[in-house]
């Protein structure tokens, strides 16, 4: 083969290999985007990128720093990026004095800070100097990413995340690494805010200003939650136990990790927690990074995991393993720095030892002296530090704490119990949560306050984390403690109705990699936001619960009996409405009210209507004993939502006897029947609004007595 033929053969072989590698690289697009988002956030906040490699990998790494310090495809602020192999004087001195294995690790120790990012390139993943650099970075809380070739490697074991790219030759792998560098630059540019005009934050260890959202630091015990979804079709021949055939496995952050992700819906969140250097710890970091900043503390033992095996939506068994997850060798200065710019601190105690006496507890105690601290306790954890703003035990936790403290309390006096704990713990306030019975808020002196909750059907798992996360965000915003508890109860109620932690994880899975699970959040608990996005959705009285008409019907029918539906605007609920609703309820076992949304009312009634928003109207209706559920819809007539709800009876108020109802055919097509309910004469929202300007003088006598239940039935 001639030299010319050799070159042609090499090119054809190389291009085929490169094409295969690029196809594989395309599947890593989500991972590169996640890296870019994290790197953009950290560099804009004053962090820096460190890179290192040997030989050709050094050239690829230095290419990356050049694009970030300069620019890639468009103008932007310069970003701090340092190639550790490029400063020859320091490099040769380190090799001479410490040996080649330490040439990068020593520089990581000198230049790296908690929150920085280290990218290491090695086609083999076995170069001792890059492996040592990864270890040094981990000890300092630096995020580490590796670009390697296809084989498992020591470098991959030491890094938080690794892209192991296929290639038959070193040259192919190196060219793929360069493609990753360019794609990473594109991702960084895409995630940088377009309105940034200032330089990144100072490089002296101070925190850069954030984007106006409150800053919450979550301190606690992170867990890895795993859900094994499957189906049971047989029993094991070895014993009378069901066999679950696995259909899929889902992982998500638990414990303090879940609380942090929930708080991140409405705040800038930093997690300060022990992480294990094991596969579970790396998985947790990867799950959290797209949403929160991580400041790691070394821990003793492996990652704590809770694995639920589920079939048909029901948990068959839960298996817990890992731990003990006790923090060790706590970097005191890094912990203090992580807490220094917090608008509020949330202590999420899951009994692993984070809150026991030691540097972490001491740092939280110091923070409690000058900023709000929410303490979500655990029976195996330490007691709240003096001066915390709000402690949030449930009833069982409160009784256990009172017993440990030797307090004399009355179990059925939650307000008194909360007040006794507030005195003993030297806390500003204690909020004792009672699930669907609401919460009692008490200070060391004065009377306790009761905050009711609506009883909703759903999964309470994770409701405590939702409550605590909402409380921390609201305190960070400067909200008063009473309003904080009101909003936290409201958010926890909506969380339960939306399916709890399992519902949240399923929504997150549907959102895709890096996606947020939509639902009740600390930033979306205001009822004025409800019912304005079009479509049909069921609402509990909390005003924020999004379910489908189909799920409402299924839930009610599972209790047995017939489903009756009626509908209307119900703007300013009056006696005529109540009479109609009571009459409709007696036509079956469960009454569902189809409520016109705000846009629908406006189109039907004109500008200025509704007087009362959809969320408030839904809440008032849900409070009536005769109403089982409320579904808000924004179409002009209920035909579409009736097609989904499929009631057994459609009860319509008004005089429609001389003309057909447009929705009647839909009801009958699904086997339902239509019943008309005459309006109560003289009772209407319009007449009430017409009389309102004349309210300075006595109202005219009612033209007709209110219809009684017996009259309504007749």
Automatic annotation (TrEMBL):
Region (Disordered): 299-326, 511-557, 687-714
SUPFAM superfamilies: Nucleotidylyl transferase, Ribokinase-like, SIS domain
Keywords from the named record: Carbohydrate metabolism, Kinase, Multifunctional enzyme, Transferase
Pfam families according to UniProt: CTP_transf_like, PfkB, SIS_2
TM region(s), chain numbering: none
Top-level taxon in the UniProt lineage: Bacteria
Recorded GO MF terms: kinase activity
InterPro entries: Cyt_trans-like, GmhA/DiaA, PfkB_dom, Ribokinase-like, Rossmann-like_a/b/a_fold, SIS_dom, SIS_dom_sf, SIS_GmhA/DiaA_subfam
Composition bias, Low complexity: 695-714
Span of domain SIS: 39-194
Entries under PANTHER family matching the protein: DNAA INITIATOR-ASSOCIATING PROTEIN DIAA, SEDOHEPTULOSE 7-PHOSPHATE ISOMERASE / DNAA INITIATOR-ASSOCIATING FACTOR FOR REPLICATION INITIATION
Name of the protein described by the UniProt record: RfaE bifunctional protein kinase chain/domain/rfaE bifunctional protein nucleotidyltransferase chain/domain
Species: Isoptericola halotolerans
């Amino acid at each position: 083969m001639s030299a010319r033929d050799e070159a042609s053969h090499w090119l054809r072989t190389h291009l085929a290999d490169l094409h295969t590698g690029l196809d594989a690289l395309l599947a890593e697009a989500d991972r590169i985007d996640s890296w870019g988002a994290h790197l953009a956030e950290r560099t804009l906040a004053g962090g820096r990128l460190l890179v290192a490699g040997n030989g050709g990998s050094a050239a690829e790494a230095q290419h990356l720093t050049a694009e970030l310090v300069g620019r890639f495809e468009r103008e932007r602020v310069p970003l701090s990026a340092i190639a550790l192999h490029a400063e020859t004087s320091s490099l040769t001195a380190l090799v001479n004095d410490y040996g080649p294995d330490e040439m990068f690790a020593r520089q990581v120790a000198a230049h790296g800070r908690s929150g920085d990012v280290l990218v290491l390139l090695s086609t083999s993943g076995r170069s001792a100097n890059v492996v040592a650099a990864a270890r040094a970075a981990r000890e300092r809380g630096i995020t580490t990413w590796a670009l390697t070739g296809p084989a498992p490697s020591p470098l991959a074991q030491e890094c938080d995340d690794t892209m192991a790219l296929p290639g038959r030759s070193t040259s192919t792998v190196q060219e793929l690494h360069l493609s990753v560098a360019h794609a990473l630059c594109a991702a960084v540019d895409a995630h940088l805010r377009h309105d940034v005009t200032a330089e990144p934050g100072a490089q002296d260890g101070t925190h850069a200003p954030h984007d106006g959202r409150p800053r919450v630091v979550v301190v606690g015990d992170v867990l890895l939650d795993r859900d094994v979804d499957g189906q049971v079709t047989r029993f094991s021949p070895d014993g009378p136990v069901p066999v679950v055939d696995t259909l899929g496995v889902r992982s998500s952050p638990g414990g303090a990790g879940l609380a942090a992700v929930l708080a991140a819906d409405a705040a800038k969140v930093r997690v300060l927690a022990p992480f294990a250097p094991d596969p579970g710890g790396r998985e947790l970091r990867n799950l959290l990074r797209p949403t929160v900043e991580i400041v790691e503390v070394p821990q003793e033992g492996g990652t704590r995991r809770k694995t639920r095996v589920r079939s048909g939506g029901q948990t068959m068994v839960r298996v817990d393993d890992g731990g003990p997850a006790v923090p060790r060798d706590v970097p005191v200065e890094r912990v203090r720095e992580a807490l220094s710019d917090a608008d509020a601190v949330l202590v999420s105690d899951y009994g692993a030892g984070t809150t026991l006496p030691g540097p972490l507890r001491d740092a939280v105690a110091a923070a409690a002296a000058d900023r709000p601290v929410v303490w979500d306790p655990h029976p195996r954890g330490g007691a709240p530090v003096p001066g915390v703003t709000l402690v949030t035990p449930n009833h069982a936790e409160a009784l256990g704490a009172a017993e440990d403290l030797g307090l004399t309390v009355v179990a059925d006096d939650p307000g008194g119990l909360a007040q006794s704990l507030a005195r003993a713990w030297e806390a500003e306030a204690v909020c004792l949560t009672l699930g669907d019975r609401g919460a009692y808020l008490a200070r060391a002196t004065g009377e306790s306050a009761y905050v009711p909750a609506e009883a909703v059907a759903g999964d309470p798992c994770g409701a405590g984390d939702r409550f605590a996360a909402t409380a921390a965000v609201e305190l960070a915003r400067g909200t008063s403690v009473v309003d904080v508890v009101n909003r936290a109860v409201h958010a926890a109620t909506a969380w339960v109705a939306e399916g709890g932690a399992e519902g949240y994880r399923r929504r997150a899975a549907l959102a895709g990699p890096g996606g947020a699970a939509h639902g009740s959040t600390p930033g979306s608990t205001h009822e004025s936001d409800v019912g304005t996005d079009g479509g049909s959705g069921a609402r509990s009285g909390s005003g924020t619960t999004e379910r489908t008409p189909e799920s409402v019907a299924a839930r009610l029918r599972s209790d047995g009996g017939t489903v009756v539906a009626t509908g209307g605007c119900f703007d300013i609920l009056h006696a005529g409405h109540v009479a109609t609703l009571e009459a409709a309820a007696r036509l079956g076992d469960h009454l569902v009210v189809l409520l016109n949304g705000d846009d629908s009312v406006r189109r039907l009634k004109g500008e200025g209507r509704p007087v009362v928003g959809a969320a408030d109207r839904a809440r008032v209706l849900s409070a009536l004993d005769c109403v089982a559920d409320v579904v808000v819809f924004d179409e002009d007539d209920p035909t579409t939502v009736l097609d989904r709800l499929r009631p057994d009876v459609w009860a319509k108020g008004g005089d429609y006897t001389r003309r057909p109802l447009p929705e009647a055919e839909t009801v009958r097509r699904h086997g339902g029947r239509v019943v008309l309910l005459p309006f109560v004469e003289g009772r209407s929202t319009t007449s009430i609004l017409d009389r309102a300007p004349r309210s300075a003088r006595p109202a005219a006598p009612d033209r007709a007595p209110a219809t009684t239940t017996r009259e309504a039935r007749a």
